[in-house]
Specification:
Layout: E1 4-7, H1 10-23, H2 32-40, E2 44-51, E3 54-65, E4 71-80, H3 89-102, E5 107-113, H4 119-127, E6 131-132, E7 138-139, E8 142-143, E9 156-163
Parallel strand pairs: 4-5
Antiparallel strand pairs: 1-2, 2-3, 3-4, 5-9, 6-9, 7-8, 7-9
């Protein structure tokens, strides 16, 4: 299946909400309207995959600003509706996000939950050249020290990154 990937538009929020409900999955966190609002406020870019007018999945690219003023580009979420998994949709979304990131930045980051439900995402990022940062697991953004305990939720994750070739000599602006 050859999916088309594009920026999310306002009508996608309701369509995703409908498709997601039909899939029977329970998704915690942001609603699709919130994702679109974040894009409108330029806090993130949301890209959707579609085939013959049907939405298949999305990827969220967010920007984090460090105290030193550095911008960290973070692939915050990638999701494919269950019916369209293992059809190359996740790879299409990741490739598109990376091309957009490469326009201005040299590196992409991703935090991937360690739970079994996120195994496909872990494999997708590793197969596409993302490497763990070597700092170990994080829980709700904080690095876990040896012997620390954490609950296996979406907040328990490993951080990955990938060096990208910039397509623009005037990179690192947002």
């Amino acid at each position: 299946m050859k999916a088309t990937v594009r920026a999310m538009c306002e009508s996608d929020a309701a369509a995703f909400d409908y498709e997601y409900t039909l899939s029977g999955e329970v998704k915690s966190g942001e609603t699709f309207n919130t994702l679109y609002a974040r894009q409108r406020l330029k806090k993130a870019n949301v890209y959707v995959a579609e085939f013959e007018g049907k939405l298949l999945g999305y990827v969220v690219v967010a920007y984090e600003y460090t105290l030193s003023g550095e911008v960290l580009v973070h692939i915050e979420d990638i999701y494919v509706l269950p019916l369209f998994r293992k059809c190359g949709v996740g790879k299409s979304l990741l490739d598109y996000a990376e091309r957009e990131i490469m326009r201005r930045y040299d590196k992409a980051h991703a935090s991937i939950a360690v739970g079994a439900a996120y195994g496909a995402a872990q494999r997708l990022f590793i197969r596409n050249g993302y490497m763990p940062d070597g700092m170990g697991a994080r829980f709700n953004g904080r690095i876990l020290q040896d012997g620390a305990q954490a609950t296996n939720t979406r907040g328990l994750c490993l951080k990955f990154s990938k060096e990208l070739k910039s397509l623009d000599n005037n990179k690192n602006y947002h």
